[in-house]
User: What shape does this take?
Amino acid sequence: MPNVALCLNSSCVKINECFRYLAKPDAEQLYNMRMDIICNKNNDYGEFIKVKKGDKLNKSLGKVKN
Assistant: This one.
């Protein structure tokens, strides 16, 4: 997986379709602990990456809407 900072914001309205939240992390994965500050409704979710078919997702995070 490319080196993309993942998100841990479980209260985000986009978590069911967000790659940053649902992606399967690598062994040395980077996380942005305050993604909610830079990716939110006020900036039109500027850091949001939509899940695509074939993405490796962390299945333990729940159902994914494609």
The longest helix spans residues 19-22.
